[in-house]
Amino acid sequence: MKKKFIGLVAGLTSVVMLTCGCSSIGSDADAAFEYINDELATGLSGTNEEATQGGTLIFAEDIYQPMLEESSSVASTTKEEEPQEEPQADDDKVVMVFIGDSQIENGRDSGTDLASLVSQRVPNSVAYNLGIGGTTAAVEHSTTDTSLDKWDSISFNGIAYSLAGKVDKEKVFANYPVVLDNMNKIDPKEVDYYFIEYGANDFFTKMPLDKTQFEGNPLHSYYEALEVGVSTLKDISPDAKIIMMTPFYGIYKDSQGKFLGDSYVVSYGVDTLANYARKALNVAEDKKLIDFDAMNDNKKCDLYLDTAEEYLMDGTHLTEKGRNVFARLLAHIPNFYEENEPFAYLDNDYIKINEFDPDEYFMISDSELEERYPEAYEKLKAGAYPLAREHGAGSED
């Protein structure tokens, strides 16, 4: 395979463009390449069309990693001083557990996190947020001993093993009392849905995509760590449905603020975030999970570079409006499986953020449902789908 390297300098950043005849970037690589800034693009030999036919990567040596200000430990101190309501039993509720990095944690202190926003859209549900900013699916590079009696990793498997009672969660999550408190409220046998989202920090910390890139402990690899954690959750919650979310689309700058590219073209030493997303989808397929494409390859909303400022507060983390968009899309999953609404709503919802109303309930007309989803229409007319009916479905003549 013939490779061509072109060295470029943009400000103080060194990046290398790689064009090759065999690409793992996928169908959006050609579109993504258009968004490389003019200063970089003019340094390329040949046209954009020529470069993107084989796929284009930007290997960044200097990249800015946004960090959220939220602190779980500080939040917990405040909450512990307030009177606590007696928790309600989850026996008759739809129990949802959200596990992941700062995209899951984001907004938890204000009740605008994805878990809370999804729960608001799913009738009779309760959501537990186990998100911890900065965490990875893969076990951290600094953790060398992964024996259960010495376990100290707060990565995905740290949460999965803690829920399974395999490690000392009080010790492992001592510095994360909000997460620990939520964890202690969860009975794995009662969980109906797990939502799992990791990848951005695996990308930023250069975790191997899978064991083919790493000869050591497979838990230090993204794919294998997700696979093992999912297996643990399946063991302790055999009736739960597991939604594997990909990492979210993002855009990247160097430490000087210069634009580098987006998730489809920027590699920070291992691969693009888009390929971490594809590995997550591989896990979903191999483990027979429900997948949710937050990279937005399936175009359920208009998140891309031209709308990134509305969706992303810093190129990586979702704004509150962005979280509301994705909460609506995510809520269709449990609402379909709980028979609150027909699959057609999940299948057809598409959101443009500049037209988005967080109070809107998405539905298609009864006539369209009858034409395209006749079985669902018959169920609706027979009285099914209470959430949809609450919003007027089934009332058309």
What's a quick, concise take on this entry?
The chain contains 18 helices and eleven strands. With 397 residues, the protein is an alpha/beta fold.
Spatial shape: globular
| Annotation, overall tally of beta strands | 11
SSE ordering: EEHHHEHEHHEHHHEHHEEEEHEHHHHHH
Portion of residues in helices?
Answer: 25-40%
Return the average pLDDT rounded to an integer: 84
Query: Can you list the strand order of the major beta sheet?
Result: 5-4-6-7-11
Distance, first to last CA: 63 Å
State the domain count. Answer: 2
Strand content: 5-15%
Radius of gyration: 22 Å
CATH fold descriptor of the largest domain = Rossmann fold
Low-confidence parts lasting 5 or more residues at pLDDT below 50? 1-54, 71-87
Give the CATH architecture of the largest domain. 3-Layer(aba) Sandwich
Question: Notable features of this structure?
Answer:
single chain; 397 residues; Rossmann fold; 2 domains; five-stranded parallel beta sheet; 35% helix; disordered N terminus
Describe the secondary structure blueprint for this structure.
Elements: E1 3-10, E2 13-20, H1 29-33, H2 38-41, H3 48-53, E3 56-60, H4 72-81, E4 94-100, H5 102-105, H6 114-121, E5 125-129, H7 156-163, H8 169-172, H9 177-184, E6 193-197, H10 200-204, H11 222-236, E7 241-245, E8 251-253, E9 259-262, E10 266-267, H12 273-286, E11 290-292, H13 308-311, H14 320-337, H15 343-348, H16 366-372, H17 374-381, H18 386-390
Parallel strand pairs: 3-10, 4-5, 4-6, 6-7, 7-11
Antiparallel strand pairs: 1-2, 2-3, 8-9
Helix pairs in contact: 6-14, 7-11, 11-12, 16-17
